[in-house]
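R.M. (postdoc): so does anyone remember the format we settled on? I'll just put the structure tokens first.
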């Protein structure tokens, strides 16, 4: 009797094995950065994705502080053959993984996916993830630099929030009037040290300049546009009341209501709006640009690194979800970024009502016609160049160096780090 029972149990286990195998989940490992902005959001998107796709499991690795750190972590993982399946990289760091042939092209997956064309990605925003004819990244969260201002302080200082200045001269003049209100009130701050020299590029590009010449052999930011940009940074301190303080200090001052005008990315808009609540009337304005000026798109893209076909399929489903209309809607409502799947902004079921109720978010989208790429310097020294530029910008903000001395030295130091042209 016992023998028959054991045989029956063995047969049942044999029959059940295929069913158990079919239920096994495909795990996707994911790495991202800037956890104070993205941790909760990524976890919420992954939870919704797994709810709709129970055959997949998303596992997040310990997030990195910023885009430079996540790029370095990726390069280290490539050496040890421990690359995650999906990594969210800053727009200006994709080039490294194209040059080193580490990121896997998404073109075959897109071509085989009959649904992707209906996800509403703006063609121009898909272009930011395209290199050498290959789609390597899909935009997750995108931004432009904007101006935040405390409409109550602007009014107290005699300004008109409905006609906020469109030039740096006007902004600095308003900042001085706000500072003159006295007490703990501060007039202006510009987060010049945002990752990847993003705000420095904004100052150069907004004046019609470029980082390098078209052939990428020589520094070009030391021309008229760069001179104007660095002079503007210097004037922020000398005329605009800006202090040499950390981003965290400026953020705290602005959200507490003691800082009148703040130059930053749209990325913080969602969080800032919640922190400000009803303390004061929060408004946003366009970043000052010349007629031929451009503004660098910021943010990050989802990139595929696994070469395993099964994991690629699972990772693609996750990337498609996270960067698509549903993930994009969740992202916009949690941050100040806008999605690559921009069609969601006009969808009554997704973001249309949200944007109508939150017009501050529309400033960044209205700046899209002026947008250009977040420049990535060529060669192995790309990240080092970022650090060199930051050091020179700091010397100007700290008033240790004059723009006319700092700019040529910065250009010389960057030129020395560019790939050899011999």
């Amino acid at each position: 009797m016992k023998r028959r029972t054991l045989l029956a149990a063995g047969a049942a286990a044999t029959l059940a094995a295929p069913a158990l195998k079919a239920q096994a989940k495909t795990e996707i490992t994911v790495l991202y950065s800037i956890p104070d902005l993205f941790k909760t959001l990524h976890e919420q998107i992954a939870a919704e994705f797994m709810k709709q796709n129970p055959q997949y499991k998303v596992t997040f690795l310990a997030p990195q502080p910023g885009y430079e750190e996540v790029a370095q972590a990726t390069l280290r993982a490539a050496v040890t053959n421990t690359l995650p399946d999906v990594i969210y990289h800053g727009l200006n760091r994709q080039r490294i993984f194209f040059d080193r042939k580490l990121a896997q092209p998404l073109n075959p997956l897109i071509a085989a996916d009959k649904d992707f064309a209906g996800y509403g990605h703006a063609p121009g925003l898909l272009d930011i993830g395209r290199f050498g004819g290959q789609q390597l990244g899909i935009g997750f969260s995108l931004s432009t630099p904007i101006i935040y201002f405390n409409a109550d302080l602007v009014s107290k200082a005699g300004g008109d929030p409905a006609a906020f200045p469109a030039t740096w001269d006007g902004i600095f003049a308003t900042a001085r009037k706000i500072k003159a209100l006295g007490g703990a009130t501060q007039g202006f701050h510009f987060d010049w040290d945002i990752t990847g020299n993003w705000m420095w590029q904004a100052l150069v590009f907004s004046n019609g300049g470029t980082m390098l010449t078209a052939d990428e052999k020589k520094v070009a930011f030391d021309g008229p546009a760069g001179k104007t940009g660095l002079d503007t940074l210097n004037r922020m301190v000398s005329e605009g009341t800006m202090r040499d303080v950390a981003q965290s200090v400026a953020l705290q001052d602005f959200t507490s209501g003691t800082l009148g005008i703040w130059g930053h990315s749209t990325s913080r808009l969602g969080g800032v709006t919640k922190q400000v609540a009803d303390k004061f009337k929060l408004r946003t304005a366009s970043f000052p640009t010349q007629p031929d000026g451009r503004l660098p798109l910021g943010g990050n893209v989802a990139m595929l690194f696994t070469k395993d076909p099964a994991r690629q399929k699972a990772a693609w489903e996750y990337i498609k979800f996270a960067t698509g209309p549903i993930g994009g809607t969740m992202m916009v409502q949690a941050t100040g970024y806008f999605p690559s799947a921009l069609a969601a902004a006009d969808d009554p079921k997704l973001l249309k009502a949200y944007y109508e109720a939150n017009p501050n978010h529309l400033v960044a989208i209205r700046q899209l016609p002026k947008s250009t790429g977040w420049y990535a310097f060529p060669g192995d020294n790309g990240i080092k160049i970022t650090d060199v530029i930051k050091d020179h910008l700091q010397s100007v903000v700290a008033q240790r160096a004059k723009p006319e001395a700092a700019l040529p030295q910065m250009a010389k130091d960057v030129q020395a780090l560019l790939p050899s042209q011999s």
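R.M.: ...and that's the designed sequence above, right after the tokens. Also worth knowing: The first strand starts at residue 26 and ends at 31. Residues 23 and 57 are 12 Å apart (CA to CA).
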